[in-house]
Design brief:
The protein is mostly helical and about 425 residues long. The chain contains 20 helices and no strands. Helix 6 packs across helix 7.
Length: about 425
Amino acid sequence: MQQSRRDAGLVRAVGPWSLAAGIVNIIVGAGIFAVPGALAESIGVYAPLAFLACGAAIGAVAVCFAEAGSRVPTSGGPYGCIEAAFGPFTAYVTGTLLGFGNLLACGGVAAALADVVGSVSPPQYLGAARVAVVVCVIGGLAWVNIGGVARGARLVNVATLVKLIPLAIFVVVGAFAVHAANFTPSAHVAPAGLDRALILAMFTFVGMETALCASGEIAQPARAIPRALLISITSVALLYVTIQVIAQGILGDSLAHSTVPLADAMARINPALRALMLVGAAVSMFGWLGSDILCSPRMLFALARDGLLPRVLGRVHSRFQSPHMAIVFYCAIAAGLALSGTFAELAVLSTLAIAPLYIAGCASAWQLARRGVALAGEPLNFRWIGIAVLIGIAGMLVLIGLASRAEITGLGVIILVSGAIYLLQSRLRSPASETL
């Protein structure tokens, strides 16, 4: 076990509420402002059931992550738990999947935010506006997080509060504009529509693994990690179901044809509320980027500390005690992806890449509990961890099965390539470097 070496120089300054805020912030991204319409198109008034089904699957995964994280709280989050349970090969492959998916998602969200902000600029300045937004937002967030995990966590707390205000207004105001007639089923649900709905709903729940990458800087992790996961996943599931029900109750059949359903629903009440929802979507994207840049570079940092990436990425800033080189490297690649505009074609694959990580994370909880591993005091010791493991793994296998053959093939290629790179690195690595 090398957790003490991996986290050396870092400060445990993140509490359960800050961690919960980070999880909520990174799960509740821009997707919830658009997904309700696509869900209604797929399965109509039954859309809230898709959120409940995916929430149950994600809840089981969260229980497993809470169990494993309470036993092995270290930088990289799930990567560190998987490494402790199954060794560096499995951890490297799943860590690569996590880093790959997060980089694509970060670049894509930054590009989407640039498009939203750039849309209000004159057409001749659109290109320059997009570049300015990407560089300023990602560069600014990098600067904040290089200044230390406490500063990055405070920004996430504020962003989470601000991004939830438009959603809270939508729920409170929209609840009084719901019409019971809008819940009448209009058509038979096709199996293909159900498959698409489940993938879309699962997409909106992905993200807790990213927030847990900062586990090496969480105070009293054996208690904080389970509490934060319980608070965040439960809150998000209830919020999603409520939003879907209200959107359906206001828009009825027209919800299925809306690309900005929350904004369109509020427009039925007051045009100013529509503008608020559009601003809320932009703020939500910014908040998502804040959480991602706080947490995802810790994945690179952990791999570098374990000798699986260049050592320079494992450096800690002498003043701010942050993994500054990993943050700079991650943000530079994410900015390049955002400016290249290549994320759209790989968005589904980046989401699909999380499923094997969740499977390995669930299995690691079982393995660590079976072996009695506990590196940070009394662990969670969830009584029905075996049931949670089975539900979590089954849910992720179903998610993979819903993907297309090309997407599954792409996922397999990434796994094979990352495994080959690890084996090559193992052969080239000198015995002396293994002891560092």
